[in-house]
Amino acid sequence: MQRFDCSDEAERAAGLDAAVAAVGRGELVVLPTDTLYGLGADAFDSAAVATLLAAKGRGRDMPVPVLIGAWRTLDGLIDRVTPQVRDLIQAFWPGGLTVVVRHVPSLRWDLGDARGTVAIRMPLHPVAIELLGRTGPMAVSSANISGQPPAATADNAVAQLGGAAEVYLDGGRCVAATPSTIVDCTGDVPVVLRAGAISLDALREVLPLIREPASS
Questions:
Q1: Count of structural domains within the chain
Q2: What is the spatial distance between Cα 189 and Cα 211, in angstroms, rounded to a whole number?
Q3: Residue numbers of the domain that contains 143
Q4: Is residue 216 domain-resident?
Q5: Could you point out which of 80, 99, 144, 148 has its C-alpha 20 to 30 Å from the C-alpha of 155?
Q6: Where is the secretion signal located (predicted)?
Q7: Strand runs (DSSP E) across the chain, as ranges?
Q8: Which helix (H) or strand (E) holds 159?
Q9: Strand order of the sheet with strand 167-170?
Q10: Low-confidence stretches of the chain (pLDDT beneath 50)
């Protein structure tokens, strides 16, 4: 296990190099984001994603979201960027919004039992963006054991995951320390699946018809 202090320029550079190499080998890395720390792997390496799920004690019934480092990446991953999706990501990316969309059927990945959909986010964090720019899309879930508190610091992540991750990129305490808001955009009307960093009021300023689940 290697840990790098990303507040130091030299360590940050070395840490990013180590993380890129680890992802390329199918290993797991912990990275800071604007919401919480994430446990990540190459999104297109099904064995690495399976290792990620096992490290968290999480089943395939909870598919792993994907983080991307550039808006244009989205066009190659999903069937169609609808006007609703475009409006949401223009307003809230990079940032604390995850959108659930239908992915291109030909993509060779296995993120869990996602039934043709994928949850995608572009984080607002320089270390995460730089890493994603070098690795491409990463499968990233919160850096904690399933059912335990999410990690707002690298220390929190180390305490829970230990040697399950090869590289820890320490970007300090996550300012928001709040999970992203998840919006399902697969239907005619977007639905908020999880409240989080982006409020419902803020979402409705962009898409007035967005709604919460019927059970809420």
A1: 1
A2: 7
A3: 2-206
A4: no
A5: 99
A6: none
A7: 2-5, 29-31, 38-42, 66-67, 97-102, 117-121, 138-142, 167-170, 181-184, 191-194
A8: helix 154-161
A9: 2-5, 167-170, 29-31, 38-42, 138-142, 66-67, 117-121, 97-102, 181-184, 191-194
A10: 216
